[in-house]
Amino acid sequence: MGLKLGSMTFGSLFKKPETTLYPFEKKEPPAGLKGMVENDPALCILCGICEKRCPTGAIVVAKADRTWAINRLRCVQCQSCILACPKASLYMNPQPPAITTTIEPVVVEVPEQPKKAKVAEPAE
Q: Is 60 in contact with 69 (CB distance < 8 Å)?
C-alpha cells in the first residue's frame, strides 16, 4: 500500500497537472458531449415540430410573435428536436451556458423569411 502511494506521488512530480486555472484557461469539451440545444434563426421556419417532439415541453414556438424559446433547465438533451427539425436549424452547442441567477427561458427572435418569387415559365 505504502509503496503504491509513494510511486503515485513520485510519478505526479513529472506529469502535467490535471487541473486548469479556470476561468483563465478553459478545457476543450470532450468528444461526444451533448451540450445544449441552439437554434439558428436564419434557418428556422417556426414549424413547431421541435415543440411537439420535446418530451419535457422545454421548447415553446410562438408563430404570432416569431419567437422560439427553450427552458434549459427542463431540457434533457435527448436530441429529439434536432432529429425532427426539417430545416436543420437546431444543433447541439458543446460549450456550457453562461452562469445565471434567473430561471428564464432563452428566447430567439426569428426574422421574417423572404418570400420566394415564382418564376414564370417561358411561353412557346
A: yes
Q: Is the pTM of this model over 0.70?
A: no
pLDDT given for residue 67 in this prediction: 94
Pull the grid cell for residue 87.
430545416
Angular region, 99: left φ>0, alpha ψ -120 to 50, beta rest: beta
79 residue type, one letter: Q
User: In the beta sheet, which residues pair with residue 3?
Assistant: none
Q: What is the widest separation between alpha-carbon atoms in the chain?
A: 94
Rounded CA separation 1/9 (Å): 12
Residue 18's φ and ψ, nearest 5 degrees, are -80, -20
Task: Using only the alpha carbons of the chain, give its radius of gyration.
Answer: 23
Rounded distance between C-alpha atoms, residue 10 and residue 14, angstroms: 8
For 83, residues 6+ apart whose C-beta sits below 8 A from its C-beta are 53
